[in-house]
Design brief:
- By secondary structure, the protein is mainly alpha-helical.
- It has five helices and two strands, in the order ββααααα.
- A hairpin with a 2-residue loop joins strand 1 and strand 2.
- Belongs to the Cob(I)alamin adenosyltransferase family.
- Keywords: ATP-binding, Cobalamin biosynthesis, Nucleotide-binding, Transferase.
- Pathway: Cofactor biosynthesis; adenosylcobalamin biosynthesis; adenosylcobalamin from cob(II)yrinate a,c-diamide: step 2/7.
Length: about 200
């Protein structure tokens, strides 16, 4: 099998149900998710070579997320989404919420915005977070223009929170403090019941 097909030389590509321009909003959305998946793979590589902490749980989570990002791209590749063929489910987003809670419990309280960075591990996860936010924006644009499965948008929204929390937990495991944005106000407050 040849990698090149020449079918895209005229600036069009195939989606499930037809062909569209390569800069179509749908292609831009799932293409950005593919970019995110590459950065998740890079973050996993950084974790795998770092012997400063036990990263097995986070490595397992990132691997599953990579599979689920393929699911997201698959769902978005339908010109007309078929609800019976969608792979992204509410349970996937709920699992992310559980992981977020686990990692948040490992971090010190936060009151201000923080600078992305700290350890190499945390920095790579912050890159994932920002690319995830861009992927989410692309999916929102797609939702305004064409049919789009809502669960993908929900998943990406929660996934960016996961990367933020995992980055902070990574720094905490390595004994590094997040650096607060020094000109920022206190934006994270706890409610009277102790939740945020």
């Amino acid at each position: 099998m040849k990698i090149y097909t020449r079918t895209g030389d005229e600036g069009k590509t195939s989606v499930i149900g037809g062909r569209v321009k390569k800069d179509d909003t749908r292609v831009e959305a799932y293409g950005t998710i593919d970019e995110l998946n590459s950065f998740v793979g890079l973050a996993a590589s950084v974790l795998a070579k770092d012997e400063g902490a036990d990263w097995q749980d986070l490595l397992e989570h990132l691997t599953l997320i990579q599979h689920e990002l393929f699911d997201c791209g698959s769902d978005l590749s339908y010109a007309v989404p078929d609800p019976l063929k969608m792979k992204v489910t509410p349970a996937m987003t709920e699992r992310l919420e559980g992981w977020i809670d686990l990692y948040e419990a490992q971090t010190p309280p936060i009151t201000r915005f923080i600078l992305p960075g700290g350890s190499e591990v945390a920095s790579s996860l912050h890159v994932c977070r920002t690319v995830c936010r861009r992927a989410e924006r692309r999916v929102v644009t797609l939702s305004d223009e064409q049919d789009c499965p809502v669960e993908v948008r929900k998943y990406l929204n929660r996934l960016s929170d996961f990367f933020f929390t995992a980055a902070r937990a990574s720094n905490a495991r390595l004994g590094l403090l997040d650096v607060e944005y020094e000109r920022g106000a206190q934006v994270f407050r706890r409610r009277s019941d102790g939740t945020k």
